[in-house]
Each structure stands twice: as C-alpha cells, then as structure tokens.
Design a protein that fits this description.
10 strands, globular, 7-stranded mixed beta sheet, Rossmann fold
C-alpha cells in the first residue's frame, strides 16, 4: 500500500490555510465530494468530471498534498478517498457539509458516480457467476456460516476503534463486523476479490470500512496498529501459517484480540487441487503453539460441526502488559499508521 503523506497536517494556521487554498476551486470541491462517497481511480474521476487526465491529476495532486485526500496504490492502480484523520480531514468534512446537495452540478456528478458503482457491481456479479459453482460446492461442506459469524461478532472486544481483516476476500467479515467498530480495513492480494469487496461495502453503506491490496506475510502497518485482527477461512491457503499469525500479532495492540476461523483437520485431499488449499485443517494444539510463539495468550476454542468439515474459532489476546515494552522498529513511516 502506498499512501501519500498528509502534508497539510501541521495543526497550525498555515496548515489550515493551505487546505482552504487547495479546496478553493470548483472542480476540487467536486472531487472531494465524489471521494467522500468511496474510493475512486483517476479514470473514474475523469469519467464523472468530463475533464482531461492532466487536469484531473493536477487537482488530485494539490488535494493530496494539502491532506484533503488520501492516495492509495493497489498494484498499477491508484485510488483516492477523502482524508479520514487530522486537521485537513476535519476541514474537508466541514467544507462538504456546507456544499448544497441540491446543486445541479453535484447532482449530475452523483448520477454519473452511481453509474460507475453499478458497473462495478456488474463486474463483481460476473466474477461471482464464473466461480459460483466452486464456492457453492465448498460452502455445502462447512458448518452454518451464520452461526460462525455470530460467534465471531460475540468474541470481539467491547470497544474496537480499528479492526483489520486479513485475507478479506469478498469483504464478508467487514460486512459482519464493520457496523460494530470504529473503522475496519480489509487486505487481500487479489484485485478481483477487492473489486467485489468494494462493491459490497458501497451497497452496504459501510463508509467506515475500506480495503487494500497487501501481503499477509508483510502487512503494511506499524506495530500495534489494531485493536482486533480477524482471519476467516484464510490460514489453510498459507504455506507458512505460523508466519501469518506472527505478523498479525505484530500489528495487534496490547489488550487487542486475534480471531481466526478455519478448518479442523480433515482428509479431503481433493481440496488441494480443486480449491488451492495448502493445509487440510489445523489442530488446536498446533494453533496454540503458534499463538505462544507470537507472544499471544490463547483463549477459548469453539468448534462448529459441518458435513463433513468442522470450522474452528481460535482466539488469542495480546497482554496489556505489553504496553510497558518498546515496540519493535517498523519498516514503515508513521503516515501508514491507522490511528
């Protein structure tokens, strides 16, 4: 993930004036209003605004440098969204609140944006159509998904300001847990899956959730960034599951919780070829050992019987005492922190 630094966040009058100057142009206000509705690419903004690529790119550069927009790279694509933290983000929200929703140009922008979201939905639906038979076959072998999702929700800490869902896929965990947390972010390597997830988040009205392309073995966050980390049906795809757990533990804050839902040991060898499963489930002792090695305290284990696959939820906490220990040096700058 590549996020532009929030240059307008010096907290003083100069930063405030820089943000106001950057926004003081009709096209830039339109861009801010559009990016408040969801993450958009340069080409999508060009389509809505009807302006040239150099002109739109220039507006985006000014807004990002002022801290009014955040720039997020995903492979060869770049997405922009309204800033979510800092003084510049407060300025952006305040300015949009003052912008009349019934303005004719804004109404036209909104209609064009809806068309883009609808096209995204059609693309996501086509992806599901192509893969529905394979996923349907696998879901038929599992325990009831609603029961597992309810259990995961019940195991969340009482207060979660920042949640990370590793291997988010279609964003289902964000849909389930997002309404109960301050902010949730999902990461996945598959751009196709992320496109599906974005569509689901827009349709669900989950403005507090977003997704990023990232590697679960090297998460793009500093230590102690999240109050809760989830992995739902992800670990059996990993060739180094212990490393994935260690990396999840690294970004977990003291007192935070890691929740993993995955398969108990089974003998369905065909899943290796049919669904790219690297591991045929995990036993409780094995997962508990990985938790301990990662510095986590294992919690209760829950099993959900399926036909024939059993789903297990393993939970582990990072001790609040870890607040007394210095964080390990991060390979990322503070601008990548979640909060």
């Amino acid at each position: 993930m590549d996020e532009a630094p929030l240059a307008g966040e010096d907290g003083g009058i100069s930063g405030l004036l820089a943000a106001l100057r950057a926004a003081a142009e009709p096209s830039r206000l339109r861009i801010m209003a559009l990016c408040a509705e969801g993450e958009l690419t340069v080409s999508e903004l060009i389509e809505v605004l009807g302006q040239s690529q150099p002109r739109v790119s220039r507006h985006l550069k000014v807004l990002a440098e002022a801290g009014l927009l955040e720039r997020l790279r995903e492979g060869s694509w770049v997405f922009y969204r309204l800033a979510r933290r800092g003084r510049a983000a407060e300025v952006a929200r305040s300015l949009l609140e003052l912008t009349p929703a019934e303005d004719p140009m804004r109404e036209l922008d909104t209609a064009r944006l809806r068309a883009i979201f609808e096209r995204r939905a059609q693309t996501a639906a086509e992806y599901f159509r192509r893969n529905a038979s394979r996923w349907g076959e696998l879901r038929a072998l599992h325990a009831d998904e609603g029961e597992v999702e309810a259990a995961l929700l019940g195991l969340l800490p009482a207060t979660v300001d920042h949640l990370l869902d590793i291997g988010t896929g279609t964003g289902r965990m964000l849909e389930v847990l997002g309404p109960h947390v301050g902010h949730a972010q999902g990461v996945d390597l598959s751009t196709e899956m992320l496109a599906v997830a974005r569509d689901h988040l827009v349709r669900g009205g989950l403005a507090n959730c977003d997704v990023r392309q990232a590697d679960m073995y090297q998460l793009p966050y500093p230590d102690r960034s999240f109050d809760a980390v989830t992995m739902h049906q992800v670990l059996h795809f990993a060739d180094r599951p212990a490393n994935v757990i260690a990396e999840a533990a690294r970004v977990l804050r003291p007192g935070g919780r890691l929740l993993i839902a995955d398969l108990a040991p089974h003998a369905m060898e065909h899943l290796r070829d049919a669904h790219a499963h690297r591991r045929l489930g995990f036993d409780d002792a094995e997962v508990a050992g990985w938790f301990t090695a990662a510095g986590l305290v294992a919690g209760p284990v829950r099993h959900f019987a399926g036909k024939p696959l059993v789903i297990v939820i393993w939970s582990a906490d990072r001790s609040p005492a870890d607040l007394q220990r210095p964080a390990a040096p991060s390979h990322l700058s503070p601008q990548h922190a979640v909060g």
